[in-house]
Design a protein that fits this description.
The chain is an alpha/beta fold and about 350 residues long. The chain has helices at about 10-15, 35-60, 75-85, 100-145, 155-165, 180-190, 200-205, 225-235, 250-255, 265-280, 280-290, and strands at about 25, 65, 95, 150, 175-180, 195, 215-220, 240-245, 260-265, 295-305, 320-325, 330, 345-350. It is elongated and about 110 Å long.
Length: about 350
């Protein structure tokens, strides 16, 4: 029986209180002003329209008739402008001169329409904001297929995201899951959809549409969390490729047993790179360049093209290091690697392109 070795306190443990946050999907923020600022701006516009109407009426006050005392002063102008813009129109103050009636037709009436548009627009925008967000969320869910779910958006999760984007995967095809609302807000600011919640719970992963995902990256800070996420993810999606990271190498077999297709031991991998850099700094630099997509040399997986069928691995245009034949990984120096077959896939080193093509994946 395998036992999970737990690390000490980490970032996720320090933010354990954020697991209490109700799971929810947060779409990337649109550039929309805050509701209070929108209402304040519209209120100022309405007051400006009212003040302009009062000015128009007061300037030509002699052309208006008041049933109470015949004279129209500033207060009467404010009163007339208010009841006119609100379309109440009691009729106690009326324009009787040609100039006053012309001003009402050409100026006051358009201002009345503008005033109503401001008020109705503010009300509708406040009332429909939630409906608009629900519509965006439903449209996102209906269009999302074969996407990538990244669980954990710390250093490892961000690096995985950058590599995926460098290989041509669009931001719309990546969903971030993290228990921290602040982390998800940062992901939203970068253009990614995020789900706030505990990824060991199936309802949280379902909100990320994990059941329809093609790839799942587990980059949590705790090994026991990674195991639980892998178990839950594999239960929800049998066909997805699951890649997970662990801190302790002895936990890797348990993670594979939990459903992960590939397990990366972050501490051991970093240690091996450090050791290689000590022995040969240039070799270490080359290895770091290979795992950093989009610059220098890239390590890719691609299918065999028809022109390469029947040839040796050394006759291809790329520097082939391994041949994937079925579930068997064959080294370039193995005689069984040649000749190449149409169903083979090649692990090769290529020169990074400025506009990388979408990555080949099963």
């Amino acid at each position: 029986m395998f036992h999970v070795k737990l690390p000490g306190h980490d970032a996720m443990a320090r933010h354990a209180d954020e697991y209490l946050v109700t799971a929810r999907v947060k779409l990337p923020h649109r550039r929309v002003e805050r509701p209070l600022r929108q209402v304040s701006k519209r209120l100022l516009m309405a007051l400006f329209v009212l003040a302009l109407t009062v000015f128009i009426v007061f300037v030509d006050s002699e052309g208006y008739h008041d049933n109470s005392d015949d004279a129209v002063d500033l207060l009467d102008s404010v009163y007339y402008a208010t009841v006119t813009l609100s379309t109440t129109g009691y009729g106690d103050i009326v324009p009787y001169s040609d100039s006053a009636r012309l001003a009402n037709v050409l100026l006051v009436t358009p201002l009345r329409v503008l005033f109503l548009i401001i008020l109705v627009g503010t009300t509708l925008e406040v009332l429909t904001e939630r409906t608009r967000e629900e519509w965006r969320l439903n449209r996102w869910r209906s269009n999302l297929r074969d996407h990538t779910v990244i669980v954990g958006y710390g250093t490892k999760g961000r690096s995985a995201m950058q590599t995926l984007c460098a290989t041509g995967i669009k931001k719309e095809q990546i969903v971030i899951v993290d228990p921290s609302s602040k982390v998800i807000e940062a992901a939203n600011a970068e253009g990614f959809v995020g789900v706030v919640g505990d990824a060991t719970r199936s309802d949280v992963l379902l909100r990320a549409e994990l059941q329809r995902a093609r790839q799942i990256v587990i980059a949590t800070q705790r090994d026991d969390t990674a195991v639980l996420v892998a178990l839950t993810a594999r239960q929800l999606n049998r066909r997805a490729k699951i890649v997970a990271a662990v801190r302790e190498e002895e936990n890797a077999p348990l993670l594979r047993q939990s459903g992960a297709d590939a397990v990366i031991t972050s501490a051991s991998a970093a240690g091996r790179l450090l050791g290689l850099s000590v022995l040969s700094p240039r070799a270490g630099a080359v290895m770091e360049d290979l795992i950093q997509q989009g610059s220098g040399l890239d390590l890719i997986e691609r299918p065999v093209v028809k022109a390469e069928v029947g040839r040796s691995v050394r006759e291809t245009d790329d520097l082939v290091v391994c041949v994937l034949r079925g579930h068997r990984l064959i080294g370039y120096d193995d005689p069984a690697a040649s000749p190449l077959q149409l169903t083979d896939r090649l692990i090769a080193i290529v020169r990074a392109q400025s506009d990388p093509a979408p990555a080949h994946s099963e």
